[in-house]
Amino acid sequence: xxxxxxxKATDINxxxxxxxxxxxxxxxxxxxxxxxxxxxLIGGFYVTLLIPFNQLWHFLLLPFLxxxxxLITLFYTILFSGLFIHLFIIKYEPGVYEYNYQNKNAFKWIxxxxxxxxxxxxxETFLMGQMKNSYYRxxxxxxxxxxxxxxxxxxxxxxxxxxxxxxxxxACIYGHIHDYEKGIIxxxxxxxxxxxxxxxxxxxxxxxxxxxxxxxxxxxVVTKGQVLKKGKVYGGIPAEEIKSKSKKK
Length: 249
Description:
This protein has a domain at 129-240: Hexapeptide repeat proteins (UDP N-Acetylglucosamine Acyltransferase, domain 1), CATH 2.160.10.10. It is 45% helix and 18% strand. The chain contains 7 helices and 18 strands. It has helices at residues 2-35, 38-50, 56-60, 62-87, 104-125, 130-138, 245-248, and strands spanning 95-98, 142-143, 148-149, 152-153, 159-161, 166-167, 172-173, 176-179, 184-187, 190-192, 197-198, 203-204, 209-210, 215-216, 221-222, 227-228, 233-235, 240-241. A hairpin with a 4-residue loop joins strand 17 (233-235) and strand 18 (240-241).
């Protein structure tokens, strides 16, 4: 009987812990997204002081002002979410964890996802170049010099990419696998060497390693833990070395 009571108490405490941490994540997200609107509100206040909107041409400015307001809001949303994750060092470590709010690494992963997902969608919609790289670095990603990240990084703090690399549009690098059936999340690092080319629409899964000078064809899939050898060309699902015709002969 005592063990049953203890089990029930543990379940209740666990449920309470999950709910409290879920609320905490919601409050953090509301705070970050809310303060992102403050620069727009302040700017809008001064615009109304400078422009009385009592003439027709004043209203013709509205589309431009709205557009500028959207850009300002997007910029500060990116800035504040990145700074929060960077300043509070919200990074999760490789491993296999229970997917619940009480697990430290799972909690950090969920929090980063909540703050990062809207930004990821912004990056998928707008080409922001250097701002994108700077944001990824704030989240803990290692990015070399002269590297263009054109696709999507799902887990920046688990991703490393070297110098002189190119990542095509719609390519995606995953640092996690979420197993809903087992209720676990698998996190692992991805390392990409120097002078690599990742084709458009390619997928790279957790634990994968691309050594220096690797070329990955468009639409290829690098499976979990797969290592692509230095100077080789790979393509297909799963990714396999593509040998030149001269070598085949």
